[in-house]
Amino acid sequence: MVPSPADLRMEQGCLPHEAYFARGEQISTAQARGRLAAEMITPYPPGIPPSCPANV
Questions:
Q1: Residue 7's pLDDT band (cuts 50, 70, 90)
Q2: What's the rounded Cα separation, in Å, for the pair 36 and 25?
Q3: How far apart are CA 19 and CA 36, in angstroms?
Q4: How far apart are CA 23 and CA 53, in angstroms?
Q5: Distance between CA atoms of residues 53 and 42, nearest Å
Q6: Partners of residue 50 on adjacent β-strands
Q7: 14, 23, 37, 54: least CB-packed within 10 angstroms?
């Protein structure tokens, strides 16, 4: 069963402009839960992002 688009909508942590210019820090994946990513996920052909969520 495919979820509805409304069920896939996530809460926006901050505006894209604020996120782009915010100070970032490098942390381990163990510390990343609940944090905002400072890097963009760029789709790599054929359209698969080169990242995946850590075991949550």
A1: confident
A2: 11
A3: 8
A4: 22
A5: 15
A6: none
A7: 23
The amino acid at residue 53 is P
The pLDDT score that the predictor gives to residue 56 is: 47
Q: Which amino acid is at 31?
A: Q
DSSP letter (8 states) at residue 39: S
CA distances from 4 to 8, 9, 30, 45, 52 (A): 7, 9, 30, 26, 22
pLDDT value for 5: 86
Q: Do the Cβ atoms of 40 and 50 come closer than 8 Å? A: no
Tell me if the pTM is above 0.70. no
The Cα–Cα gap between 54 and 32 comes to 9
